[in-house]
Amino acid sequence: MRLRWGLFVVVIALIILSGIYVYMNNQSFEMPIQSPPQKQSEESNTGLLPIPQLLVDSNPEELVADYYLSAQNGLSNFIEGKQTPTLGYNGNYLGPVIKVSNGEEVRMHVKNELDMATSVHWHGLVVPGTSDGGPHQLIQPQSIWEPSFTINQPASTLWFHPHVMGTTAIQVYYGLAGMIIVEDENSKELNLPDDYGINDIPLIIQDRNFNTDGSFVYLDNMMDGAVGNYVLVNGAVTPDLVVQQVKMRFRVLNGANARNFNLRLDDNNAFYQIASDGGLIEAPLLVENLFITPGERAEIVIDFSKYDKGDVVKLLNDNELVMTLLIGDDSEDLTEIPDSLAVIEKMDENLATGVKTIVLDGMGHMVSMNGRKFDINRVDDNVTLGDIEIWELSTTSGMMMGSPGHPFHIHGTQFQVLSRDGSPPYLNERGWKDTVYVRANETVRIIVKFDYEGLYMYHCHILEHEEAGMRGQLEVK
Ligand code: C2O
Ligand code: CU
Ligand code: CU
């Protein structure tokens, strides 16, 4: 009898718990966007890979740049005959590419033409906290934010996106994101493909879902954030790109809210990875696949000289189509992939002044960091300017079975990975990183230093995890 009652209580408890779990994972959001005020020309995002415009520097002076960005409502055409309300910078969806040089003084002029507050965070850029564009630098509707900073880091592929409490994930999903390319003396001297739009191509990879009327479905009720059945590259569904028989450099950004991509060519030919988040790695790495998690970037070079005109090569995520490469004409190729790409000084573990432990807990909406959820009025950590610290990142699955991995990101710095579960880091993460994937039940040790003062966020880059509280903030002074 006692046993039966015990069983009954356990069953009831399980039913209640799973009810709470389903409820907590089932909040869906209505996008607070309006139709564009004036009729905008519809962008055709089907067929060929769109190449984002390079943003024009409106300052003629050398080493000083003025860039104008405007967050706005738009209409896009992803699916034949259907219109999708979207958001974009200076356009309908995504934004222009901003190309800057190390040492350059950059003044940004960001206008918010949306009906809701936004912010623009320069992901990967090492700048003072007040210019970082996190939730402490909100831009109200019809307002302008004008941060300025001097680029102080090596050549790299970075990006920008909103960072607003509660609406980051949805603003990014609707289209607010863009790429930043940093050049430096070294990258200009190397003979890598660097002709933007010709042999140096951004690939902003995302996934989306659509309603039958063409509008986006934003559902964050998935176990691990908003994932979609359609793969978009630079805002076009599984597009085509015609390439000549030369070496092509692709700057890959995982711009998805929550999905990991494992990229490979359908013929399993190898390609080179030449850069990670924060810049060129020391030597090119010949790989057959590139695993890339939300927020991370990688630069790769594919040599198409081994193909013939008319060949078709598919870029896949495991077995799912990402884009199609159509091989065109033979062409002279003066570029090369040098054996040595950059010199990366290893940060010395012995100089570390402290160890921080970061535990990424849970899944779905039931996430936290070090056992608590983010509070914008609480500073979680203090760091002394210039101090070197070791951060130990690990994951727990909380009360539910199974645990996802978490792409962990820190603002305002580029760090180095020391180890994964005591083993050396992967070959492609031995350069500068600002986002590192921490797998389930894994401990990743990184070494970090901050060069500017201010408040900075650190969080899981699954945007739904970040919004649900898997985030902290630190003050550097
Ligand atoms: Cu892409 Cu808080 O960052
Ligand atoms: Cu960031
Ligand atoms: Cu996460």
Quick recap:
The chain has helices spanning 2-24, 168-173, 185-189, 463-467; strands spanning 43-44, 64-77, 84-89, 98-101, 105-112, 121-123, 144-145, 148-150, 156-161, 178-183, 200-208, 230-233, 236-237, 240-243, 247-254, 261-265, 271-276, 279-287, 290-292, 297-303, 312-317, 320-327, 354-363, 366-369, 381-383, 388-396, 406-410, 416-420, 435-438, 443-449, 454-460, 471-476.
Which helices and strands occur, and which strands form pairs?
Layout: H1 2-24, E1 43-44, E2 64-77, E3 84-89, E4 98-101, E5 105-112, E6 121-123, E7 144-145, E8 148-150, E9 156-161, H2 168-173, E10 178-183, H3 185-189, E11 200-208, E12 230-233, E13 236-237, E14 240-243, E15 247-254, E16 261-265, E17 271-276, E18 279-287, E19 290-292, E20 297-303, E21 312-317, E22 320-327, E23 354-363, E24 366-369, E25 381-383, E26 388-396, E27 406-410, E28 416-420, E29 435-438, E30 443-449, E31 454-460, H4 463-467, E32 471-476
Parallel strand pairs: 1-2, 2-5, 4-10, 11-15, 14-22, 23-26, 25-32
Antiparallel strand pairs: 2-3, 5-7, 5-8, 6-9, 9-10, 11-12, 12-13, 15-20, 16-19, 16-21, 17-18, 17-20, 21-22, 23-24, 26-30, 27-29, 27-31, 28-30, 31-32
The chain binds CU-O-CU linkage and copper (II) ion (CU) (2 copies).
One copper (II) ion binds next to loops.
